């Protein structure tokens, strides 16, 4: 079993968490890949997902791509949270996972997803009806 690449704690699991930054007509993707304990994995997940929620929407493709990033990150979150408490390596301390996403102001950015989904479903529905 591999130790956490940030703090050396065990148990750790291999994950890939992405962040999306929209830049009007383009976007940038940053990924963290590696072995992380529960605390360090949650810290990386929360930071990357918060970045996506803050900056992912600001490109032409953002409203379509951000929900995919959130779903992929949620898959990795589920894997991280199944780990037991980290057993620190001597002289090391696991990262502080910080506040849960829904207790951060950035969670309000999820409200952007509601109108996007409503518009997308409406366009598909009206397109199927031939209106």
Automatic annotation (TrEMBL):
Top-rank taxon: Bacteria
Alphabetized UniProt keyword annotations: Membrane, Transmembrane, Transmembrane helix
Transmembrane segments: 56-78, 106-129
Full protein name: Uncharacterized protein
Lineage: Bacteria, Bacillati, Actinomycetota, Actinomycetes, Micromonosporales
């Amino acid at each position: 079993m591999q130790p956490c690449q940030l703090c050396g704690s065990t148990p750790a699991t291999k994950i890939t968490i992405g962040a999306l930054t929209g830049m009007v007509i383009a976007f940038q993707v940053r990924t963290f890949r590696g072995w992380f304990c529960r605390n360090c994995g949650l810290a990386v997940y929360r930071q990357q997902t918060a970045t996506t929620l803050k900056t992912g929407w600001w490109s032409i493709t953002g409203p379509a791509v951000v929900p995919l990033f959130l779903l992929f990150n949620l898959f990795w979150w589920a894997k991280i949270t199944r780990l037991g408490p980290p057993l620190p390596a001597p002289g090391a301390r696991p990262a502080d996972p910080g506040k849960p996403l829904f207790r951060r102001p950035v969670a309000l950015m999820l409200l952007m997803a509601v109108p996007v989904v409503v518009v997308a479903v409406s366009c598909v529905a009206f397109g199927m009806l031939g209106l």
